[in-house]
Amino acid sequence: MTIKTNRLFFLDAMRAWAILMMLQGHFIDGLLDPAFRDLGNPVFRIWQYFRGITAPVFFTVSGFIFTYLLIRVSGSGRGNPRVAKGIKRGLQLVLIGYLLRLNLFGFLFNGELYPSFFMVDVLHCIGLSILAVVGLYLLTSRGKKYLFPAALLGTTLILFLLEPIYKQGTYSFLPELLANYFTKANGSVFTIFPWLGYATMGAFLAVVFTRFKEYRFLYPASIVLSLFMGSFLIYGSSPAFSQMYQWSGLELFRMIEANNYLFIRLGNVLIVFSVFIALRRFMVHKTILALGAGTLSIYVIHYIVLYGSFTGLGLYRFFSASLSPALVVPGAILFMILCSFLALRYHGMQARINTRIALVHNSAKNLLTEIKMGSAPLIREITVRFRLALRKFLRTVRN
Predict the structure, then answer these.
(1) Is 303 inside any structural domain?
(2) In the prediction, which pLDDT does 358 show?
(3) Fewer CB near the terminus (10 Å): N or C of the chain?
(4) Total domains in the fold of the chain
């Protein structure tokens, strides 16, 4: 891949890796017997650590890809065609997030939306993150070029630095539908704060990457800087916050240092970036790229199979927290293969599916047009008779 390539294959490879990590992570976390969740076991501890990297990588890459596509096209502000596409995409992800949590039988037969329907998950937060990036882009589009990346980086820093404060809020003054975006008290898996911070950091990296895309040593420099900054955030950010607390006495720095997972995970993300950039020439296999481009389909399929979206009949219902490692590990591998296979099959048939949907839509449209044209004389006759009857009735009342 050269710098002139429009598609950044290493990002698709990162998304493919992240979605596969998510599949096995959800499968093992949901079905592994608690008796085997031993932090003293180095294998389980390593698995848990890498599982914690998955969501930060996914949010960061999502912000990077969307912003890279947003700023590389001609047009600015509302004149950028990617703005409308981004708004549509963000709302679509939020809608799909709610649909996946819908118990169809309960809704149709009981007219009830269960509390789990209102819980916020990764798709809700990624959708809102895209909308937030679009909002920052529009707000800064008429200003200097540095305002957009400054707003993105500033958003990440504010959300990460103030996390010890806003995470304590109960947000009971908000309706539960909205409160779930800010607190996990009602069962939400993700909240928009602080996860938006990873998406805006990815968007910031995309702006920097695009600004220097003609630089001869773009990729070597990206690898070195990502390794350096990632290592510092992992090993040096906590001591730095401890030192800042000693200098300033500000309690916030001590609270960050005590639970410094956001900056450490960001360091992990940068290390992953450097690895995939370094191996970018080996990441061009069509299956890898197809998986990276089809993460939404894979996510939807895995949610239906594992958690039983719409029906409640998923693997989680029958095998929740009951499997041994001897079963859950090969089961996770088969689960990854199944979801990937179904997603790739879906994408292979997507053109035919879209064609058939278009044919059905056109047929229905033509049928409605014919019905309208055929019934027009009847509608006119009924209208005339109704008017005459109404006049007769009013005349009778007047007399």
Answers:
(1) yes
(2) 65
(3) C
(4) 1
The stretch 78-105 carries a mean pLDDT of 91
Alpha carbon distance 131, 125 (integer Å): 10
- Residue 42 and residue 32: Cα distance in Å, rounded? 16
Residue 108 tokens, joined = 């149709």
CA distances from 159 to 197, 223, 229, 266 (A): 6, 26, 19, 13
Structural domain including 104 reads: 9-370
CA dist list (Å): 273 to 202, 277, 353, 367? 11, 6, 35, 53
Q: Taking residues 165-179, report their average pLDDT.
A: 90
Count the neighbouring beta carbons within 10 Å of the beta carbon of residue 346.
15
Residue 229 lies in a domain: yes
282-335: per-residue pLDDT in tens?
888 888 888 888 899 999 999 999 998 888 789 998 999 999 999 999 999 999
User: Considering the domain boundaries, does residue 271 fall inside one?
Assistant: yes
Name the residue with tokens 């998304």: 15
From residue 219, alpha-carbon distances to 14, 224, 279, 328 in Å are 16, 9, 11, 39
- Cα–Cα distance, 129 to 90 (Å, whole number): 8
Q: Kindly report the length of the chain.
A: 399
- In the block, which residue shows the tokens 């950044």? 8
Residue 165 belongs to some domain of the structure = yes
Q: What is the reported pTM?
A: 0.86
